[in-house]
Every structure is written in C-alpha cells, then in structure tokens.
Amino acid sequence: MWVVVGAMAALARLPWALQRALGRALGALLRVAMGARRRVAARNLALCFPDLDEAARARLLRAHFAALGTGLFEFARAWWGSAAALRRGLVVEGLEHLEAARAGGRGVILVSGHFTTLEICGRLLCDRVPLAGMYRPHAQGALEWAVKRGRLRYAVAMFGREELRPAIRHLKSGGVLWFAPDQETRRGDSVFVPFFGRPASSLTSTHQLARLSGAAVLAFAHERRDDGGYTLRLSPRFDGFPTDDATADTARVMSAIEAMVRAAPAQYLWIHRRFKRQPGGEDPYAAG
User: Strand, coil or helix: what is 131?
Assistant: First the structure.
C-alpha cells in the first residue's frame, strides 16, 4: 500500500490534460479488470434506471468507469498536487445560501453523496469555505495516513465517524461540516428509506447531528462538466429540519442525494453495493 501511495503522489504532479487522458484510459482498463465491481455497477444501473434500454445502460456504464478513472487522478491531485488548473472554469452556485445559514454563528452540515468528484470538489470548496469533514477511518495504516494527511492540506479538521462529540463541538462553534451519508456502515443507526424507488439501508447521521448541534443542513452537489470544468452547487437550507422523525429526515436527505445523482449519473459511485441489505433479506446482486 505504501508503494501505491507513493505512486499516487508522483502521478499527482503530471499535467492535468495528461491526467485526464490517462484517467479515461485507466477507467476502460478497470472496466475490464474489475469484473465483480463492473457487475455490481451494471446491476445498480438496472435497478435505478429500469426505463433505460440495455444499450443506454451500457453507455452509462462505460461513462461511469471513465469517470472513475478520472476521479482517481483527481484524488491524487487533491491530496498531493496543485488545484490551480482545476480552478479555471470553476462555477460555484449558492454560496449565499451557506452564508445565510451561518448567520449568527450557526453551524452548517453539508450533505453530499459518494461521487467520483468528491475529493477534488471538496478541495475546491475549501477555497471559499473553512470546511471540516467526516470520514470512515481505514484499517490499513498507509491508507489512513494518506487520507488524513491529504485532506488536512485543505480541510480545517477531519473527524472519524465515531468522533461524534468533537464533530458536534465543531458545529456548535459555528463550523461547517461536510460528509456523505449515502453508504451504509456496520456501525450507526440506519433505517430503510427510498432511493431510486427501492428500499436502501441509510444512516440517520444527518438527523442526529442536526438534532444534537442545532446546525442547519444544506445539500452540496458537485459535478465534472463536459468542458473539463467543475460546478459546485449549494442548496437553500432544509426548512424545518430536523423533525422528531429520523426516518422522514433520512428520506429527505436521500431524496436530495438522488436528485444529485440524476443530474450527473455517470459520476456516482455505482460500484458500491448500495442495496445489499433489504427488508426481506433478499440479495439484489445474487444474479449480478
């Protein structure tokens, strides 16, 4: 793993145009080499876009792996390289919503999903906002070191998913916290809520953090445009959030993330088994 980390640090210094070309080529290679993950992604697309014909889903699958390959170079550049080339053409929408939510020293939770653009767009937003993040700690020492060291180059703090108290203190002090609650983990309260019309086991973390901290909640969408630039989009705060109903609040968060996915479907992390837990215990990936 240390060799991989060293290779990523070296690749982060390549010219951005070359990284983009290599990323698309790497994505094509990964689509062939990662057979199990390709089948998971294909199954997810079939579950979430049943109205698309097989040819359209095949095109979307190819586009997803191209985005995935590019995203790996974006991760490397975010952690070890310069973001100067990526700032050109950057579009940021909705900063006024964040400023309004922070009025009076109130903390803000930014919720997003696991997109291939997650890392680089988080870094780009940090140019405008002092941002802290939550993440899932890694058992592999080299990877844990790389993740924390890389993200602390631009984030003001990083909290592991178990570090609830310091995260709440950060929010209560008026800080901004960004995290993506759309992947289930073994720990933490979860409920089944709709995601693309299917039940998906989803963490109630956003409800809990907002309830305990009094923070406002905004959706943070981000995407890589066809012209090579990036768009960051902040929504107005969720009115009346949180409520007393953790399930309803979690459904609202997942609905916002689903809207982000529909806006940039190739860039969502489809290789994750999002529907692996179902209320009846069936496995939607058994035939995938």
Answer: strand
List, in order, residues 6 or more apart from 173 with CB less than 8 Å away: 105, 107
Structure tokens of 284?
């939607």
| Alpha helix segments (H runs only) across the chain | 2-11, 16-33, 35-48, 54-80, 84-87, 95-101, 118-126, 141-151, 164-172, 205-213, 246-263
Alpha helices for 12-109 (secondary structure H): 16-33, 35-48, 54-80, 84-87, 95-101
Q: Which residues of 28-40 are buried (b: 16+ CB within 10 A; e: fewer)?
A: eebbeeeeebbeb
Could you read off the pLDDT of 200-243 as tens digits, one per residue?
Answer: 999 999 999 999 999 999 999 999 999 989 999 999 999 999 99
Distance of CA 125 to the CA centre of its chain: 13
- The two three-digit tokens of residue 176, written as one number: 């901004």
pTM (two decimals): 0.94
pLDDT, one tens digit per residue, over 105-160 is 999 999 999 999 999 999 999 999 999 999 888 878 888 888 888 899 999 999 98
